[in-house]
Amino acid sequence: MTVSSALPKIPDRGGPAQPLLTVRGLTKSFGLRMPFGKYSQSFKAVRDISFEVGKGTTLGIVGESGCGKSTCARLIAGITASDSGEVLLDGQEFWTPGATIGREMRRALQMVFQDSSSSLNPKMTIGDTIAFGAKVHGMPRREAEVLAQELLSKVGLAPHEYLHRLPHQLSGGQRQRVNIARAIAVGPRLLILDEPVSALDKAVEAQVLDLLLGLKKEADLTYIFISHDLNVIRFIADEVAVMYLGEIVEMGPVADVFSRPSHPYTQALLASRLSLDPADRPTSAPLRGEPPALGEKMAGCPFRTRCDRSADVCAERAPMLESVSTMMPRHQVSCWIANDGAARRGQVGGKGV
Amino acid sequence: MISYAIQRVLFALPIALGVSLVVFSLVHLAPGDPISAILPNEASEEMVIEARREFGLDRSLIVQYGIWLGKALQGDLGSSIGNGRPVLDEVLSALKHSLILSLAAGLLACLAGVLLGLLSAGLGRSRWQHVVRVVTITGVSVPHYWLAIVLVIVFSVRLGWLPPLGMSPDSSAGWRPDLNHLQFLVLPAIATAAIPAAIIARTMAASIQEILSRDFMITLRAKGLPRSRINVHVLRNAMPTTLAAIGLQIGNMLGGSVLVETVFAWPGAGFLLSNAIFQRDLPLLQGTMLALALIFVLINLLVDLTQSWLDPRIRRA
Amino acid sequence: MSYLHADGGAMIRAGGRHAAWPRFMKQKAAMAALCFIAAICVLAVGADIFAPEDPYRTRVAMQFADIGTTGRLFGGDELGRDILSRLLYGARISLVMAIVPVAVALVIGGALGVVAGYRGGIVNSIIMRCMDVFYAFPSVLLAVAIAGALGPGIANAIIALILMFIPPIARIAESVTTEIRDHDYVVAARLSGAGTLLIVGTQILPNVAGPILVFSASQISVSIITASGLGFLGLGVTPPHAEWGSMLAALRQALYVNPVVAMLPGLMIFSVSVAFNVAADGLVRALGTKQ
User: Fold this and answer.
1) Concatenated DSSP letters for C29-85?
2) In degrees rounded to 5, what are phi and psi of residue A60?
3) CATH number of the domain residue B127 falls in
C-alpha cells in the first residue's frame, strides 16, 4: 500500500496456491442460563464449520439474523473462544482453543464491525483511534499520526478536517470509513467485515463497497464479508457460504450459487430477495415459518421443519456438505434431495418435487 | 416465580454466612486483647489464662468462629459482659422497640414520600416540580441527629408539647399504643423518617418522569384515553420501583437509627449497639450486629421477591 | 442500600457527552453551592488567619454565651470557648472526613468494580459476592460498628467510612464496565493486539470514569452526615479537638440554656451537606441523565 509510514508487510509464505485462511471443524455451544445457575441446556451456535478462503478473494457469508454468522466471525478472529476446531492462516496455526494469540500473528487478521454507537470509542479522536493499533505494534507516536492522516485520506476523509473529531460528530458512512481505516492501520492480510454496510443507506452503502473493492486491490487484502443482503454479497464476493442454524448449507462460487441454487433454503432466500429485473426472479416459494427455538433438539436435517420437499431420510440423518455434481466440485450443498451423489445412493423416497 | 423465590433464598444463605463472618471479625479488628475488656484491670495472670480458656480465646480463630457460629445457630449469642444477661434476650427486647419506631417512621416516610412524589410528577406543573426538588434535596441532606435536636428544641424546650426523650412515662412498664406512649414516639419518628421520605419521593418522581417519557404514553394519549386512566397506568408502572425504595429504606431505618435512638434515649437496637460499643461489651456488639444485619438481609429478600412478583422483568439471573 | 443508591435518576450515559463544564456553569444553584463549598474550604485552610480566637482557650464566664457577645461572636461552648473559631477549625476535620473517605473508596471500589466488570466470570463473582456481604449491612450501622470496634479516632472513623463506601462505588463501576466491555471498539482494541492494561486505560476508564465520578460526588454529602454522626457518637476526634459532630454532641448540654447556640454546628453540617448535594445534582444535569 502506498503510505509513507506503515508497519512492515507480513510476508507471504505458501504462495498463491495456499489458501490464506483454512477453517476446520469450528464448533461453539452456548449455554442457556437456567435457574440455579446451571447450564441445563445448550444450543450449538456454530456446528462443525469448515471452509477455505483463497488469497485475494472474498468469501461472502449470508444467512438470516441469528444463524450464527457473526459468532462464526468472532470465533475465527479469536474474540470468542471456540469449543473445538482449528484456524490456519497461510498454513500457520492462528489459534488453538484456549490459547492466546501472539501479537504479531494477531495483526494479520482484523475486523470491521457494523456501524453502531459502540463501534468507535466515544472518548477518542478519530486520529487516535486509527493510530492506536499501529502504536501497539511499536510504531513511534509521530509516525503513527502521519499514518492516521494518510489512511484517512485513503478512505476518503480529509485528514485536517476529521483527525481531531470525535465519533459522534461523524455520519454513519464516515464512521464506517474510519472503522475500515482503523482495521487496515496494522497492515492485516485478512479483513472480516461483519455486516459493514447494513446500517447505512443505499447511496452510502455503494460508496463504502467501492472503497472496499479499491482497498482490497491496493493493499493486497482478502475479505470475509458477512451480510444478510444477497445483492451486496453478489456484488462483492467471489465465493458465498449460506448459513442456516449454525451450519453451512450451501457453498460455492457466487455465479453458480446464484444462478443454480441447490438448497431449498438458498432458493427461498433468493426468492425473497428484492429485484428490479423481472427475469431475475426464481420461481420457488419464499421462506415460510420461523427457525426452531433455541435449544430445541432435532435429529436429521435442521431445515426440514420449513422445507416443502422433505423425505423420510431427512428426519433420520443430517445431510453432509457435498458437491452438487461431479461437474461442479466447488459448489457444495448439504441436502439429501438436492445433492446428486446422495440421491444416486438411493436414499431418497421423495414426496415433494 | 416459585423457582425464582427458591433461587433468591438460596442466594441469601451465603450472604448470611458472609455477614456472620464479618460480624465475628469485627471483634478481632478491635485493638488490644478482648479479655482485658472482660476482666477487671487488676486481674492476675492466672485469671487471664483461665478466662481465655473459658471464652475459647486460646483456640485458633477458625475454631472460635465455628464454635461461635454453632452456638449462634442455636440461639446462643453468649451473655452480656455488662449485666450478664443473655445477649439474645437483650437484642430481642431492643429489636421490639426498634420495630415500633421503624414502623411509625416507615409509615410517615411512605405517606410523605409518596405524597411529594405524586406532587412533583402528577401535577405536571414545573413550579411544583421545582418546589419538590428543593424539598427532597434538603431532605436527603439533613443530618437526622441534628434534626432530632432541632425538633426537641422546638417542640419540647420551647413549646413543651412533647417529651424530649425516653419511650414511656414510667420506664418499668412496657410500651402500649395509647396516647401517653404515642407522644414519645412522635419526634423520633419524624427525625427517622426525614431522609427516607425524601429518597422515596425522589425515586418515585424519577420513576414517574421516566414512564411519562416512554413511547407507550404517547400511544395512550393518542388513543384519547382520559387523564385519570393514564394516571392509573403511570402509577401502576411506577409502583415496583417505589416499593423497592420503600422496602430498602425501612430496612435502613431498623439498623440505621443508631443516632436518632441515641438522641432520644430510645431503648432500641441502635441504642443498645452504641452502649455496647462504649462499654466494650463485645458479645453484645456481635449479637446486635448479627441480628440487625440478618433482619436487613431478610427485608432485602422480601423486597426483591415482592418487586419481582409485581414486575417479572426485573428478575435477576 | 445507602441513601443515594435508591435514586433512579442518577445514572449517567457511559461516554459520549462533552463540554459539561459550561452546562454546569449555567445552573445557578449548582454554581452557588460550589462557591459556598469553596468559601468553606478557604475558611478552613486559613482558620489560623480568620479565627478571632484560640479555639482551645476556655473562659468559664463565657459558657454558653449568646450569639453576638463580644469576643464570642457565635456564642461560647460548654467550656466557654469561642464557637466561631471552633467551627472554623472544625471545618478542617469535617471536610477531610467528608471528602477523603469517598476519594479513597473511589480508587479502591472503582478499581475493584472495573476489574470485576472487565474480567467477568469467576473474578467478577468473587469480588461482587464479597461486596454483597458488605451490602447486607445497613450502611450507617456498618460504619458505626467498624468505628466502634476499632475505637475512637479520626483514622479509625475514616477507615470505617471507606469500608462503607467501597461496595456501592464498586457496584456502579462493575455495572458500567460490564455494559461497555463487549462494545465493538473494545473488541477492536483487543484485535489490534493491545494488552489488558492498555485497553483498560485507553478504552474502558475514559468511558466509565464519568458515571463513577458522578456517583461518588453524590456520596460526599452522605459521607459528611455519617462522619459527623460518628463524631456525634464520640467515635471521631478525641477532645479537645474541634469537629462539627462532636461539637454538636457537646452542645446538647445547652439545649435548655441557649438552644440557638446548640444548633449551630448542626447547621454547618446541614449546609455543607446541602451544598455538596446540590453541586452533585448539577453535575448529573450537566452530564445529561439517562432517561
Assistant:
1) HHHHHHHHHHHHHHHHHTHHHH-SS-TT---GGGTTPPTTBTTBTT-B-TTS-BHHH
2) -95, 135
3) 1.10.3720.10
| pLDDT tens by residue, A207-256 | 999 999 999 998 889 999 999 888 899 999 999 999 988 889 999 999 98
Q: How far apart are CA C205 and CA C198, in angstroms?
A: 10
Provide the grid cell at A143: 509516525
Nearest CA in chain B to C282: B137
Fold that domain A3-8+18-32+40-237 belongs to in CATH: Rossmann fold (3.40.50)
CATH 1.10.3720.10 fits C42-52+72-286, yes or no: yes
Over residues C224-262, the pLDDT tens digits come to 999 999 999 888 888 788 889 888 888 888 777 788 888
CB contact (8 A) between residue B202 and residue C133: no
Contacts of B3 in chain A (CB under 8 A): 35
User: Where residue B303 falls among pLDDT bands split at 50, 70, 90?
Assistant: confident
**Nearest of C220, C233, C201, C237 to residue C272 by alpha carbon:** C220
Q: Do A35 and B7 touch (CB under 8 A)?
A: yes
Place of cell 476499632: C150
pTM value is 0.85
pLDDT digits (tens, 9 = 90+) for B45-83: 777 777 777 666 667 778 888 888 888 888 888 777 777
Domain ranges of chain C: 42-52+72-286
Host domain of residue B87? 2-316
Grid cell, residue A345, equals 445412493
**CB-CB contact of C212 with C90 (8 Å):** no
How many independent structural domains does chain B possess?
A: 1
A38 at interface of B, judged by CB pairs closer than 8 A: no
Q: How far is CA A169 from CA A119, A152, A159, A173, C22, in A?
A: 14, 15, 14, 12, 19
Q: What per-residue confidence (pLDDT) applies to B41?
A: 64
| Chain C CB contacts of B31 below 8 Å | 150-151
**Residues of chain B contacting residue A36, judged by C-beta atoms under 8 Å apart:** 7, 10
